[in-house]
Amino acid sequence: LTVALGQIGNFLAYTAVPTVLVTPLGALGVPFASYLLKEKLNILGKLGCLLSCAGSVVLIIHSPKSESVTTQAELEEKLTNPVFVGYLCVVLLMLLLLIFWIAPAHGPTNIMVYISICSLLGSFTVPSTKGIGLAAQDIFHNNPSSQRALYLCLVLLAVLGCSIIIQFRYINKALECFDSSVFGAIYYVVFTTLVLLASAILFREWSNVGVVDFLGMACGFTTVSIGIVLIQVFKEFNFNIGDLNKPNMKTD
Fold it and tell me: Which residues are listed as membrane-spanning (predicted)?
């Protein structure tokens, strides 16, 4: 139930605010999960929680304040944009290369293979989710565009379903071969980066962002990413503040 509610919340968030804000803020789930599960965090984990929260605040302050695509007609125009179509073709070629040639040979030994597949699929899942929310607004209206909105929504649902199924498959493969903490940290950074790139090309959410806000977003995302790495990768280290006060004993 909680997973379903979380996905519904993500869906509503993507339809209400810019993608560039929603995706990085998903990092806040990591420190909250550690608190709810009563996991013991070392000093690096606590520092990671602090950095994640601080970076999220910076993202909120500097994120785009308005949507660039608010109607179905605008969405259709963006989906047929040559730049976005070219980007999707490049992503599809990379996915085919990774899935059918590279993954069978190097997937179990190189963590970046499975992470690349799952992250590239994010270029379809998040924009599709946002597009479904926009198209669904016109489905139940009695106007000529409602039929087009229904077809568009069905296509996006099919793309979203296929992307999620393939992502689940390769996430499970990665967790069978690699440590979940390392995978989770690297996957968050790469997935978020590619999702932001796809959303920027499709929805042009960065078009009205100034230099100061752009640098603020970059710094906020970097801070959140470093915090996630500290929480996930170094959580097994037996290290706390008391260790800093121990004298450094040297022996000849």
Answer: 12-37, 44-64, 84-104, 149-170, 182-202, 214-234
